[in-house]
Fold each of these.
Amino acid sequence: MMLEVKDLNVYYGAIHALKGVTFHVDKGEIVTLIGANGAGKSTTLNTISGLLRARQGSILFQGEDITRTMPQDIVRKGIVQVPEGRKIFATLSVLENLEMGAYLNKDKAQIQRDLEMVLDRFPRLRERRNQYGGTLSGGEQQMLAIARALMSRPTLLLLDEPSMGLSPILVEQIFEIIQDINQQGTSILLVEQNAQMALSIADRGYVLETGRVVLEGPAQELLHNPMVIEAYLGGHG
Amino acid sequence: MKHISRTTLIFLGSIVTFTLVVQVLISLGVLSPFWNTILRQGAVMAIVGLGLNLIYGFNGQFSLGQWGFYAIGAYSAADITYRWTNDANSNGLTVLFFTILLVGASILILYRVFGKIRGVDPLSAFAIYLIAAVGLTALAVSIGNLTAPAVNAILKALPTNIANTLVYLLAVIIGGILAAEVSFLFGLPVLTLGSDYFGIATLGFTIIVKVLLDNSDVMFGFVEMKGARGMIGIPKLTSWIWVMLFLILVIVITRNLLHSSYGRAIISVREDEIAAKAMGIDIGHYKTLTFVLGCLFAGLAGGLYAHINGFLHPDSFNFIKSFDPMIIVVFGGLGSVTGTVFAAFAWQLVLEGILRSILPPGFETWRYVVYPLLLLVMMLLKPNGLFGNYEIPYLRQVLPPLKKPATETQTPAAKESL
């Protein structure tokens, strides 16, 4: 098992945000967490990447307990998060943004190779490599955010709402890229409001509601589950 | 250094020429002592401004504490040279030297240890640092007093001029490092605060320093500082050349830091702390590093300032004044080294020089009406500051051209899309 989250409890002050969330990601899988606003999807990702601390429960990554590990050490172990709302460095150039992604890598030659690989995957970024990150369009910024995360050679990629604020065509492109990254061996934990898209590319899914996992199963099953359709896919079958 | 680029040569060449031309004008008497003082104070403000620009402009931490660290640098450097020139005693030098040495070593060692054992909470770490610092300062006082006679003898064997200059330079550097170490201790608990709260806390620091200086003779028994009456009799050793040498040094350090991967990490913390964390950047480390370096510059500037007029008064370190570097940095352009240096000189030349000479006698106070108006107009016309984020070529970062490693070939798909 790549990632194993057991009985995770997270609080914002007195607010009990995650009430015993348990799930896992196997090697090579795309797993998605879906749910409404405030269900605890981003909180879960932020806790895994160390930006938030769990009060109870444990997070195991490749068998190793990382519940109390510092964010920079978690990145070093191979878990990288693409934060919600992209959060690229607006006044750094595209190349500098990518170099920040390889911040923990000290091997200059390898960084250069990774840079080429990433720019090959995102030709758009190659064209705009010397532009400030803040001048990119929303879709390009999302690509940059994903590319920047790839620069740190993750084994598990945490994606927080990659479709946010993007047009349907761009959403499709981004999801193709995600599948592509997955096929090259990176496991993916995907948090999405766009449940339809997320479930269509995922292997398995978990439905979160007010800090609890209320439903889990293979993505195709969830896609046809009446409850999911009712609540998240906006239809009656 | 094997390779010095053309822009570096042009930059160093022009700034050295500027320094020498001004020096010649001073020696010939073309520039009166009045203008000489204003120029030197301009350079001092540029150093303080560069420190603040690092902290606020590049790292995004709103600090009003620079003036407090400036005061620490000024008073500690002044005390060293005062004791040497007036009492022919180097105990100020030796005591402060051993203090910064021992406290600095303890900070470096403890920082490493805390870095290894991750997750020590800042307040317990702070308590340990503080206990170590206080204990080692007490130790440094005894070592300093013991070694002072020997150092006296060595310094007296040197020609007076050389001994005085040596003590002066050491005093300025020690003052700067002392300010940096204090800023580290102060920054530990405070840097965890968000930017606005950090601003208030640092403003508080400036006020504390001012109150302590007002009572320096009573509370600490530093009679030579004379508390609220002001310290006199400091040798006037800061010449135009010295102050410019320090300014050039500070510019070069700032530039090289910003162009390194450290610089990018510092800027990324300003841009987005969450994204920086997610990339594995230890944001606490970079905030501390930048804050300490910025305060080192403030402390150096303080030491230089103390030896311009030979007179220090706690009122010069009033918290109202702590907005001066802030105004300079914003006026010049946040995140522009060029802008800060230019604005610092302009600030002194206009406010203390030109306005003072063109306003009729008795109307000097009107300066404080004119300059806020200037600021207002400026902020309306150029909200990004005079220079925005423009830099002269030397300070601009040149990204290396993207090269294809020989081992890999471009995929046809990528080629097409280009």
Note: The beta strands of chain A are 3-12, 15-25, 30-35, 56-61, 64-65, 79-82, 156-160, 187-192, 204-209, 212-218.
Amino acid sequence: MCLAVPGRITDIREERSTRMATVDFDGIRKEVCLAYLPDAAVGDYTIVHVGFAISKVDEESALQTLAMFRDLGVLGGELR
Amino acid sequence: MKYLDEFRDPVLARRLFEEIERITTRHWAIMEVCGGQTHSIIRNGIDQLLPEQIELIHGPGCPVCVTPLGIIDKALDIAARPEVIFCSFGDMLRVPGSRKDLFQVRSEGGDVRVVYSPLDAVDLAEGNPDREVVFFAIGFETTAPANAMAVHQAASRGLTNFSVLVSHVLVPPAIEAIVTSPTNRVDGFLAAGHVCSVMGTWQYAPLVERHRVPIVVTGFEPLDVLEGIRRVVAQLESGRAELDNAYARVVSETGNVAAQEMLRDVFEVCDRRWRGIGEIPLSGWRLSGPYLDFDAEARFDVAGLDAPESSLCRSGEVLQGMIKPNQCPAFAKGCTPHTPLGATMVSSEGACAAYYHYRRLDGPPAAELTVV
Ligand code: SF4
């Protein structure tokens, strides 16, 4: 229920005055409500809980984290 | 970038394991609060690859597991009524009540349906005006925004045949209950990333300050979990207790403000009983005054139903980290996913189910994450 993986928004439309999106989870497509993520755009990755997009995945932050992991072995003790 | 494979990279996992090994000098007990993290830890064998001094304690963050037996019995009672279409998330169907489960109610003729989103239940109510549609609104802060929106939409569509059986629970009061317990041995917490994506990290600052305990907001992929552990250990080893966010690609300090506003409108904080654990003050949400018309407990007059827990099931101790699932005498014997005695054996986020599924029957099993 809380274990959500990121999916990619492929399409956005209005349905009964609610913003809805199609989200692709590695080939599986789901209809998702965007009411809580009004500024989401096609191409964004989002975390979805029981049919609602809750947060966007921030690419820059993801890349930073991965870069930090890559540096771990090299920098060793310098990380706190 | 798919945000999945990248955070399962075995080469980087090895670096994290080595770094944790390098900085660890003594025993630390770290609780992962969320059942999704428990699952990731057991599936990938993370607990077995960590230095021996690092003990992972599995926390109570499995929504299905902590929904009290009394509420399950209420659900079974309501679902069996001929006028009712009872809608639930799929994981709830096998959760044992005191005598049966929702599957059995369905096989006996009850109209029990699994929905993906609570909005599907609202649509069902609109399409079936001659039936009563009841949605089983359980879960932590992650499912609550969706459930709140369903109630809000039912109200704005003027539906009178829709109601919700609410049993929402909240993470911060559970952490508070754990750290203040006289038997507590948790040194630091991995906070549940997706709960924080809704509520923000700000809710945890007072806990860190009051109890001087490190809390690191953590994601679910193997590297996320390892990074959460690394940051907790780093704090503990240097005597610090801070709130930290190891899942910044998804979680912000403020969280999802629109969702929080909806939650404040539709729900209000209440005391809540947790299955196997007992009552925790101010640890849940119930419908707020303006939405009481949507309360299924009142509509079907089941508020008085109550039930004691099975004496065989030790899920309360499992959920509080006092025993590991395979230390329960019934584990994998009287209790399996097909014949569950407790909810922790049913849910995909339950610790007993994770141990059973990944063959932690007693000795060390094969791990899925091959660290190269
Ligand atoms: S193994 Fe079964 S009986 Fe034992 S604590 Fe887990 S759910 Fe309860």
Note: Residues 29 and 187 of chain B are 5 Å apart (CA to CA).
